[in-house]
Amino acid sequence: MRLVIAGLLVAAAVIVGLMVNAAHPGLLFVSAPPLFGEWFPHLGPGTPAAVLIALLVVAKGPELAQHRFALPIAYVTATAWTFSLAMIDGWDLFVTRLTTMDEYLHHVPDFADVTAALHGFTARILDFQSDSWTTHVSAHPPGAVLTFVALDRIGLGGGTVASIFCVLVGSLAVVAIPKAINNNAVLPFLVLFPGAVWVGASADGMFMGVAAVGIYLLTRWPLLGGIVLGWCLFLSYGLVLLAPLALAAVWRQGELGVTARRTGLALAGALAVVGAFAIAGFWWYEGYELVQVRYYQGYGTVRPYWYFVWANLAALVLVIGPAGVKGLARDKWVIAAGVAILAADLSGLSKAETERIWLPFAIWLLAGTAKLDRRWLIAQAATALAVNHLVLTNW
């Protein structure tokens, strides 16, 4: 029944979205509703590789998930899957996705003096100023752009390295999640995660990998995990919604004392990062308040809440695939991710583009796929291939 409901939701989002576009062009700012992209059926150089990898994972994935080297095999395969999907759109598009005027690399030269840039960061968040940050830098805390500044400083600047970096870091989620939930049976489903379409290449894909590593570290070394998740707060304001997943990671049923101690260590690590940024000149909450204003200076004002509050969930269905929908269960990881996504959706600060924005939460919904069989791997691969070949996505 849930698959039928999910299918009807996607169909409704497509049909209603196309009707709205026909009647009110420019209202949704989404040409392939509910996804941000253009309808553009196409093949590409990555098509044969993507199909081959999908076939191999379907044939061998469940057995290899129990192999002694399952995690490195899964990481390499997930990386190859993500690259092959990206290459369906071609190399030139892949290496330029992060170099446009709206993206992070555009402002790397503005961080020649990092201290000065951080002290003046919030003053440039609002739009319609001569020195306003462009879309992505203004919409995120400075940790996101600082990541690419750091790459540039060590001689790894430019769009090619940035895109590859996002894929390599994003794919870490495939090995971090099974370690966090102590179940390698989910590996093949994580490898063929349809959301990989938007990991190659978007900074949100990179956020997904960092967040997953942080959650995993919380289950073993809460202080270190807190530091990584503290850094996540400065990659995206929305990653504050990792809190339910963080709680799931530190929770020990029947051991409140242990849970409290682990929570305290995690908070100490996160607050250390917040304090370091505050000393450097950037206060997170001030930036968060300003970015809400900036959001409604742009598409946030135009895009209708009444449509995206449910069409976002249709996009989510395409991100997690049929196996993700089938695997939804009363599992603490699935519930925690669901709470985060529901909060993001109802906030109205995620109207469209959620197929990439929600990646750090969406991939955790696959924690419930462990008991599914190969048929669902086929469904996952088919979903990703269909989306990537029918829509020219913006990420």
Characterize the structure shown:
The protein has 395 residues and is mainly alpha-helical. The protein has helices at 2-23, 47-64, 70-87, 91-96, 114-119, 135-138, 142-153, 159-170, 173-181, 187-191, 196-199, 203-220, 222-232, 243-250, 256-280, 284-295, 299-302, 305-326, 332-347, 354-357, 359-362, 374-390, and strands at residues 37-39, 391-393. The protein has a two-stranded antiparallel sheet with strand order 1-2.
Provide the fold topology:
Blueprint: H1 2-23, E1 37-39, H2 47-64, H3 70-87, H4 91-96, H5 114-119, H6 135-138, H7 142-153, H8 159-170, H9 173-181, H10 187-191, H11 196-199, H12 203-220, H13 222-232, H14 243-250, H15 256-280, H16 284-295, H17 299-302, H18 305-326, H19 332-347, H20 354-357, H21 359-362, H22 374-390, E2 391-393
Antiparallel strand pairs: 1-2
Helix pairs in contact: 1-18, 2-3, 2-22, 8-12, 9-12, 12-13, 12-14, 13-15, 14-19, 18-22
**Helix/sheet category:** mainly alpha
**Beta-strand content:** under 5%
Count of extended strands: 2
Physical arrangement of strands within the biggest beta sheet: 1-2
Mean pLDDT: 97
Rg on CA atoms, Å: 20 Å
Portion in helices: 55-70%
Please trace the helix and strand order, writing H or E for each element: HEHHHHHHHHHHHHHHHHHHHHHE
Provide the low-confidence segments as ranges: none
Q: Please give the count of helices.
A: 22
Shape: globular
Largest sheet: 2 strands, antiparallel
Short overview:
The chain has 395 residues and is mainly α. The chain contains 22 helices and two strands.
